[in-house]
Design a protein that fits this description.
Blueprint: E1 2-4, E2 7-9, E3 27-33, E4 36-41, E5 56-62, E6 77-78, E7 86-89, E8 97-106, E9 109-112, E10 116-119, E11 130-135, E12 140-144, E13 159-166, E14 178-181, E15 187-190, E16 198-207, E17 210-213, E18 217-220, E19 230-236, E20 241-246, E21 257-265, E22 279-284, E23 288-291, E24 299-308, E25 311-314, E26 318-321, E27 330-336, E28 341-346, E29 360-366, E30 380-385, E31 389-392, E32 400-409, E33 412-415, E34 419-422
Antiparallel strand pairs: 1-2, 3-4, 4-7, 5-6, 5-8, 8-9, 8-10, 11-12, 12-15, 13-14, 13-16, 16-17, 16-18, 19-20, 20-23, 21-22, 21-24, 24-25, 24-26, 27-28, 28-31, 29-30, 29-32, 32-33, 32-34
Length: 424
């Protein structure tokens, strides 16, 4: 702006800005891996007027306790300048507390984040090995060498447990393994497992730094006094099944016992210990039972669990299939005259579990395409056909009809597809 006795003149406005320190960086998370710390922080949203991507970062860390958030840090170590928003500090002392903070820098100076307390990991537990293993018909017992080194951790930080699985399962990731917790430091017993079955067993020792695992040991449980159970399915309907079982020498074993029926669809995974997908009928004292509310035309597997005082035994799996509707019929050929239509269809292969004498067919036909719904109650129909051919009479000449075959048994009907025919 300039002035004289005649007046004032103004220059154009220009934009100027002041600059300052960047905002304080904030740590988002810290991950301990072995003797390293992976530190991550949030990207700056304000760099004192400078582009946020131009900010430089440093990490300060110390094993001495820190409280002040000012620039002073007694005996701190400082990393080199970095542009990323993460860094890995390597070669740190094991199982040690560290105070860390992130610094952000621009041409004006540095801003200091708040201190973050974390700790490096120790070592995994020492290695052990199974020293003995034995079995009964319902349990496995094993012992192992005591772990005397817990990777700098207290003994209370050591977790021991047993993993076991049937030999038929893949054990690399132990996805189907069962776990038995351990209450002593050198032995364990796994109870309520299946007789005359081979298992893989191992010991897992874990602390916050990781795990050590023994090699797998194979062990076969002994025969059960209840082995040799006989199964019978004495009556099946579309939605029910009466099952019966016989346990040899049951009357000679004078102890209190109950039975549990476990059953499930055949396509579900079938474990040999606990069946989490099974439906269960529990606390039975009889050896015959009717299963109800079953799905039609479905394969089921079932077994019996026998509970006898403090032990349990499990029989092998058996299976049955509920009754259902017959297969869908399929038209093979259709010949017409001016007033008749002769229809031939393929015989159905499966009658839902019923004998062939309970299979019959019906033929539906209509000249109105709009009537072709599921039931077609207004359609004309020929019923109780036991052959695989029929001749429909009294049709109109030079007309179109839609026709289908229905297969029938006591469980219900199965509708074939509609076919269009034309009389001459």
């Amino acid at each position: 702006m300039a002035s004289n006795p005649a007046g004032i003149s103004y220059s154009n406005w220009i934009k100027v800005s002041t600059t300052g320190l960047p905002e304080r960086p904030v740590i988002s998370n810290v991950t301990a891996v072995d003797s390293s710390l992976i530190i991550r922080w949030y990207k700056l949203t304000y760099n004192g007027g400078y582009p946020v991507d131009d900010a430089n970062y440093f990490v300060q860390y110390s094993t001495n306790e820190q409280h002040s958030n000012d620039s002073h840090c007694q005996l701190c170590l400082l990393t080199n300048s970095i542009k990323d928003i993460n860094i890995t500090l390597k070669g740190l002392a094991r199982l040690t507390k560290y105070w860390i903070r992130v610094l952000a820098e621009n041409p004006v100076g540095r801003s200091y984040g708040r201190w973050y307390l974390t700790r490096t990991l120790g070592f995994p537990p020492g290695i052990t090995s199974i020293t003995s293993i034995s079995s009964t018909h319902f349990s496995i017992s094993l012992t192992w060498r005591k772990i005397t080194y817990n990777g700098l951790y207290d003994s209370k930080d050591l977790l021991l447990y047993i993993q076991f699985v049937g030999v038929d399962f893949i054990t690399e990731d132990c996805r189907y393994c069962y776990r038995a917790n351990v209450t002593t430091s050198t032995s364990a017993t796994i109870s309520n497992i299946v007789s005359n079955t081979m298992y893989k067993v191992r010991v897992v020792a874990r602390n916050p730094a990781g795990s050590t695992i023994t090699p797998w040991k194979d062990i076969t449980t002994k025969d059960s006094p209840y082995s040799g159970a006989n199964f019978n399915v004495i009556d099946i309907t579309p939605e029910t099944a009466i099952v019966r079982w016989y346990i040899p020498n049951l009357s000679n074993i004078r102890r209190s016992r109950t039975f549990t029926i476990e059953y499930t669809h055949y396509n579900n995974p079938l474990p040999n210990i606990n069946c989490h997908t099974c439906l269960k009928i529990m606390n039975l004292t009889v050896t015959q039972y009717q299963l109800v509310n079953l799905s039609r035309n479905t394969i089921y597997v079932w077994r019996i669990k026998i509970y006898d005082l403090d032990e349990s035994n499990v029989t092998d799996w058996n299976q049955f299939k509920t009754m259902g509707i017959p297969d869908r019929p399929q038209i093979a050929d259709a010949n017409t005259t001016s007033s008749t239509a002769t229809i031939v269809w393929l015989p159905v292969d499966y009658n839902g579990g019923y004998q062939r004498k309970f299979l019959s067919y019906s033929v539906q036909y209509t000249d109105d395409a709009k009537l072709r719904d599921n039931d077609c109650k207004q359609c004309l129909q020929s019923n109780n056909i036991t052959q695989t051919t029929v001749t429909i009479e009294n049709l109109f000449y030079n007309s179109s009809y839609w026709i289908r075959i229905i297969s029938q048994n006591p469980a219900g009907d199965n509708y074939g597809s509609w076919m269009k025919i034309s009389t001459k």
